[in-house]
Structures are given as structure tokens and as C-alpha cells.
Amino acid sequence: MMEAFLALSCLLLASSVGSQDLSYEAMLQQLHACPKECRCPPSFPHAVYCENRGLKTIPAIPPHTWYLYLHNNQIEVLSEQALRNATALRWVNLNRNKITSEGVDEGAMKAMSNLLHLYMEDNQLTDIPSPLPASLEQLRLSRNKISKIAPGVFAGMDHLSLLDLQGNKLEDDSVTEESLKGLSGLVQLNMAKNNLKTMPGGLPLSTTQLFLDSNAIEKIPVDYFKGLPKVAFVRLNYNKLADGGLPKDVFNSSNILDLQLSHNQLTEVPRFPLSLEHLHLNNNKIKSVNGSEICPVPLNDLYDYFDDKGPRLQYLRLDGNEIKPPIPRELMMCFHLLRSIVI
Q: Which Gene Ontology cellular component annotation is one that this UniProt entry carries (predicted)?
């Protein structure tokens, strides 16, 4: 009876099978091998759904699985045996389990040679899993207990574009040029909610989005952003930055588009580059805004700048400070593209 049902499902979905490069025989094999604890919909034959099942171990995964969902279980070990045949995996979600670093079999990572996305958020990892598949594009490890990044752990990981380490226990000596070596294609780095007191060093030149909210950072080195030519989005909300921790032109050497410095200890608006479009300074200690001083170019020279070359600021948030209306006239003269000011 079961075989008849599977055969009928395959026949009804022949067109979708072809679009996913899975033959009739392969689909039968995939559905027959579906673990009894999981769900393998014939309409999506490359996916295996095992979430919210109270699993303590990973069942044997069928060979044609691309997308594996194991989140919200009680899994403690990432087993080589369970993934031995699942060499086609592209996306694995292991969020909200109980996996420790000691519970990650070295062979389990080696088997996933085609993996693109690995989600292991809300587990009990103390180290970055290793060795990682060189094919990996996104690695999400937020809300674990990671306190160090071993040198060489990212060697050969030039395809990795997103690294999320939010909500771990990283300190300053954990993030060095040596520990991040190999991430030549990194675009987004999230190290919010860690124990950093200084800006992380050795970031790849490719870094475009840098999220460092809710640390204890007090100072930005004067040439910090000169080493990050592509950085466009910087979030430093909920840190301990005061005026003395921001060198006068620390942001002017960059092409930042979105800069967030909310919930710090600033009393003045820092200088920022012509390129900046969004500036968040809410909940600081700023008492006034001098449009002439913060304008990236002298007000008298503004007419020498075409619209595509002049200040690009469109959004400015200043609420939660000690500033009172009205908005200074010089501010509007300089930033004529401003669409929203929150005071």
C-alpha cells in the first residue's frame, strides 16, 4: 500500500521532479529512506523536516537531501554516522539544540562538502566547529558560549560571506588577524552582545557590514576604517563611546552609508563623510547641533558641489538627547537631501 502511494505521488509530481534534477528512481529512494521521525513531502523531495520532534540524536539522513531541518530538538551530538550518506546537503538548521563542541564529530563536517548554509544558533558550543566545509557561504552561531576563535579555523573559507557570532563570550584577544585569516570574501560580520572593549582587529578588506552593538567598546583607533575600504553599514549602539574615543576624522576616511551610535555617551555630533545617508545618535548626551561644524564641506562652498557629489544625509535621529527644537538653519542648508529628522 505504501509503495503504491509513493509511486502515485511521484507520477503526479513528475514535472516538479524534473525541475529539481531528481529522477523517478531517486525520488522513490529518497522517500523510502525518509526517517520515521521526520517528514519528507513528495512535493519538495530534497527537504527533510525533523524539527520539534524531541529528538536526542540525528536519524540517518537520505542521500538526496539538500535542506535538513533539525531545529527545536534535544540533540547533543552532530554525528558523522547520521550524515554519512547525505553528501548533497546545502542547508542545515540545527538551531535550539544542546550540541557542544565536544559533540561535533570531525567527520560530520567533512561529509557536508556541498554545504552553503549552517545554522547552529542557541546551542552550547564553546569553539567554532572545525573543519568547516570550504563551500560554506553563511555560518550562524549566535547565542552559544564561544569564547575564542582558533587560528586557522577559517583557512580556505573564501566563500563565506556571512559570519554571525552574536551573543557569545568573545573578548578582545579572541578576534585577531590570525583568527580571521581566510575570510577573504566576508561581507557581514556580527559580533554584537559579546565582551569586546576594543574594535576587533584584522577584519577582511571585503567587510561591508559590521555589527558591534551591546559590547563595552570605548575607543575607535584613528585609522581603523582606512583598513576597511568597503564598509558601508556600522552599528555601535549600546557601547561606551564618549567624545574622546572618537578621533576627529575617524569616519571621514570611509564610505559609510549607515552609521549607528545610539545609546553611548557622546556630547557632540561626530564628523562624518559625504557618503553617509543614515545617522543614528539617539540616547546620548548631546546638547546642541551646530550645522556649520558637522557639515562635511564648508557652507560657503556648497554650491560648488553637484547633487551627486554633495552631502548625502537623508535620515538623522537625535531623540533621547538634550536637544530642543528648532532645527538649526545651517543644518538644513548643508543637508538638503534630509527627509527625516527625529529630535
A: extracellular space
